[in-house]
Each structure stands twice: as structure tokens, then as C-alpha cells.
Amino acid sequence: MHHHGYAWVGEKKTFDKESIRRPPGQAPTAGSDGDVLDRYREAVTVFPTSDVPPIQTAHWLMKPPTVILGTWAEPKEAGEWLGLQLAEYAPRFASDEDREVTRLVLLVKAAVERLTWGGDVSLGHYLKGTVFHSVALVTCSPNRAAPDLPCPARQARV
Questions:
Q1: pTM for the complete prediction?
Q2: Within 13 Å, how many C-alpha atoms sit on residue 114's CB side?
Q3: What is the pLDDT of residues 52-103, one digit of tens each?
Q4: Cα–Cα nearest to 123, from 132, 97, 46, 115
């Protein structure tokens, strides 16, 4: 078991666009609504290559290995990376409460604990303006929520 780290910073309106955050799923029928067809087409073209965070954390494993920002065998090492991510962006968090150091330390500690038993971690913060910051740690090989998803890093090596 190991853990992959992912992060994204972008416009909130992009993050809010569900069609690019969900895998395509089953193809709609010929008689489907135009909106359904449009959503499916967009999901097919954008989801597999986009670095926009998926709605389900485990679906990061469906993204290309190029969006993996780090891989760690130990939860503590992954937690250290998470702490660095939070420290880098905390001064820009829109909420005063989200910037509190004690809160951030507790988030990292809880993340390490969750990774230890094979869980995933996904955090998001509004930054000043209309920007959103998302950071995730995803347990791989296997993932508890999606055990059938292969490791994207291993697929790239084969």
C-alpha cells in the first residue's frame, strides 16, 4: 500500500462544473436529452486528462500519472507533504478559522491516522477572491473505496 498526493488551484466556477469532475459512466441512449448528451461528451473528453479534482476522491486514480505530485509508502511522509501544502496556501485562505495553525496541525494529524488504516483524505479551501484550493491523498494498491482501480503510476511504467 502507498499514497499519492494531488493538488489543484483554480477558479471556483471550474470546480463547480460537475461534468468535468465525474467519469463518463454509461453512454446515453440516442433519445437522451441534449443536456445529458452534452454532459457525457464533456466527461469523455475532459475527465480522463483534466487535473480538476474528481467528485469521488478515489477517482483521482483514474487520472493520468502526470497529475500525481508525490508518492509515499508511509502515511507520516504523506502527512508532511499535506502539511506543506496547507502551510503554503493558508495565508490566502478566505476564512480566518481555516488559517488557524492549531486547526491545520489537527487536520494533518487526522489525515495521517486515516491513511494508516487505508482511507483517503480530501481537503478544500476557498482562497481570497474566486479561487479554490483542493488537496488530496489517495491510498493506492488497493484503494478501500475503489479496490478495482489500478495504480496509475504502475500503469505508466508497464
A1: 0.91
A2: 22
A3: 999 999 999 999 999 999 999 999 999 999 999 999 999 999 999 999 999 9
A4: 132
DSSP 62: G
* C-alpha cell, 93: 485562505
Q: What is the DSSP letter of 93?
A: B
Place of cell 460537475: 18
> What's the rounded Cα separation, in Å, for the pair 3 and 120?
9
Q: What is the mean pLDDT of residues 2-27?
A: 93
Q: Which of 28, 4, 1 is nearest to 153 (CA)?
A: 4
* Three-state DSSP class for residue 132: strand
The sign of the CA dihedral 23, 16, 46, 150 is negative
Contact yes or no for 18/153 (Cβ under 8 A): no
Cell numbers at 21, concatenated: 469532475
CA 58, chain centre distance (Å): 8
Helix (H), strand (E) at residue 137: strand 131-140
Q: Pick the closest to residue 51 from 126, 118, 120, 133 (CA basis).
A: 133
